[in-house]
Specification:
Two copies of one chain form a homodimer. By secondary structure, the first copy, chain A, is an alpha/beta fold. Chain A has seven helices and 26 strands. Chains A and B meet through helix 2, strand 15, helix 3, strand 22 and helix 7 of A and helix 2, strand 15, helix 3, strand 22 and helix 7 of B.
Chain lengths: ~400, ~400
């Protein structure tokens, strides 16, 4: 049985990022950029005003209040029509290009004279007690110079990065494809969500769960139906799943006589990489890869118990989806947070994850509350958790105030 | 000028949650549930096995190893065909219903005899040294009893909650509508992203930014085009925006002569609620509401500088979208984290937000790095931040090791 770290490394070793293509900028949210994006011009492209006021030439301004001749005005988007010399000023709006000769802006609040809206104003009185060269202006290229890399390849695009792309005219950024994910829950005991399960059977909760986990992780996911405990039909549905980049099966990988999944996968040319990981819940996890020509499918045989399946997705499938979609930072650093209550006594022999809540109290220092979880069938408690606490095998029990590793879930 | 808290309260006072309707469960990710979801049966519905092995009756098992008569087998989804008495056992699979009379499962690893797959097996030897009543079983209703509320109304649905809904047959959960958001950047200095801006003009970065911020916050957002600095055309485009639940304008709310937005909004029946907030960046923020019959539109006049617009969205618009979509927890608790470097000296007169990175070092205790940000036009630095640090007005400068309020951004 391999460790969590070994299993994760095996998975990542088989991930190579998918091809890239251009998308409309407004559809690029949460996609991963495939190329560096550079500034197509200086930012700002010209020295500009940061406030509404008067563009002036600081040199020879030493007596205050000082009266200046107003030559005209310039708004954002306009070209200045006058140069500014000693004793002169141009009315200027926030974001407008500084006129030649001007090197500072005096905010309108520090001036008096004719009202702002009066086109006939010809003189303004500067009420400030001093004016510094460069004040309330931003120099050309102060933020970035033309040619500078602004957003690096392999960045997942959030709204601020999308705004940067817009600023430099990148209307169709090239992004990596989203991994196509197939979800197949298996087992004759599983009935559809809209059915009433007869005694002994239960509804398909793993399908919708894995589907939405895959979408949350950036995958383009589809549920192909429930795989039966019958070899030929199971083989048919699994064959369809193997057309995608990632196939998620749940159930059928324990040691029981009806656990057909590994056999059928082997018949279909999926090479097993590992089976069983030292993780609780999630020990039966199976992982394999099928290569055919230029297509590679990663196959995860997840345990049938829903929380086991959830945890295996979170720890192994999500990093794979992120790597396939081009992201480089697939390692997640857990936080070390103080426990609010005692660790569960059930943890012990295996490295264990436990549903928990990260709480930010009034003092702003986050703590972890371990939830009263009833084991790998208990989805209800999991649904109230915002993360997983981690208890390494063989370590002494933790008490309130001890630190614990915590992995956030969104 | 009002405070950040007052402005936020004004905004939330005008939010009432939108109507609800059913959606397909697999489309319910990140939607907000409008009704409590209850267990339609006990979970589990019957006492069941948690491991593959043998269902036995503990009473009178006191000599080990003990040989038992095997009556048959039961898999998950099947009904047991035998009751179990003293000296008897039934082969059982994980998740299967316990036969009547049996009250414990002996894992297959603790037994010997005929191989697991052998249908003719009639006797099994229990190699364990003790068997506890109830072991490796889960009692009927151990997780939840029929009628119990499992997921409360106003919960945003994550994958684990979706799995709970699936488990109880909620195939079409009732969820609140997503707020319809219109985005209109304004100003003649703004050109489309795919154009090359002439001197003095710049590309529309606020539009794609606000659009994707609104989508990230759960809104159904559309950009209606760039609003010109000409009253009639501006009025026409703003009229269209007022058909939606939320209208986001950017630019045109400063004090300059060309700032037409508040006037046009007033003409169109939008009642102003506040203008200017003690926040940096973002002071010019304008907020108003239009009520017509049963339609209410919240109107945000965001500053034209992109980072000001971004911060105002994050602090005021996002909570509004969450409240409209039915979520109750619209307050976000900042963390108090240690500063890695010195606070910027520029903060002072107003409550200030500053782009920053929350970093989790190897010791697992997160710290905050203040970024070298060039002000409200500097999107590049913002795009490298994963949150905002907060510096209240008038407080002494912070040094490395001091704590600072940090607001995470995704």
């Amino acid at each position: 049985m391999i460790s969590i770290a070994e299993a994760r490394q095996h998975v990542l070793d088989h991930c190579r990022c998918l091809p890239s293509s251009p998308v409309a900028l407004t559809e690029a949210l949460d996609r991963v950029l495939a190329v560096d994006v550079v500034a197509d011009r200086d930012i700002p492209a010209m020295t500009k005003a940061l406030m509404d006021g008067f563009a002036v030439r600081v040199e020879a301004m030493d007596r205050f209040p000082e009266q200046l001749q107003v030559l005209g005005q310039v708004a954002a988007g306009q070209l200045p029509s006058h140069d500014v010399g000693v004793g002169q000023a141009v009315r200027i709006m926030t974001g407008a290009m500084m006129p030649r000769g001007a090197n500072a802006v005096v905010p309108v609040e520090q001036t008096s004279g004719v009202g702002w809206a009066d086109e006939s104003m010809v003189r303004v009185t500067i009420e400030a007690t001093s004016v510094q060269a460069g004040q309330h202006t931003m120099k050309q290229a102060a933020i970035a110079a033309r040619g500078e890399v602004l957003v690096e390849a392999k960045t997942r695009l959030r709204p601020a990065a999308i705004a940067v792309l817009a600023e430099v005219g990148c209307a169709q950024p090239r992004v990596f494809a989203r991994p196509r994910v197939a979800v197949i829950p298996t087992g004759d005991e599983v009935v559809a969500v809209d059915q009433s399960p007869p005694p002994g059977k239960l509804r398909n909760s793993n399908g919708p769960m894995l589907l939405t986990q895959a979408r949350q992780a950036g995958g383009e996911a589809a549920e192909l139906g429930i795989g039966p405990d019958e070899r030929e039909s199971l083989r048919a549905i699994i064959s369809r799943g193997l057309q995608r980049d990632v196939l998620l099966l749940s159930g059928g990988v324990s040691a029981g006589a009806l656990d057909l999944v590994p056999e059928v996968l082997s018949e279909l040319g999926v090479a097993p990489i590992f089976h069983q990981v030292n993780i609780r819940p999630g020990k039966p996890l199976w992982f394999g890869v099928r290569e055919t020509g230029d297509q590679r499918t990663l196959v995860f045989g997840l345990p049938g118990n829903p929380v086991s399946s959830f945890v295996c997705f979170d720890r192994f499938v999500r990093p794979a989806l992120r790597a396939l979609s081009g992201e480089t930072t697939t390692s997640d650093c857990p936080e070390q947070l103080e426990l609010l209550n005692s660790a569960p006594s059930q943890v012990g022999g295996r490295d264990a994850f436990w549903p928990a809540n990260r709480i930010v109290p009034d003092d702003g220092v986050p703590v972890v509350e371990i939830l009263d979880w009833r084991g790998s069938a208990d989805l209800c408690t999991l649904s109230r958790a915002n993360g997983l606490a981690f208890f390494p095998a063989g370590e002494p029990l933790r008490e309130p105030g001890d630190r614990v590793e915590f992995y956030s879930m969104l």
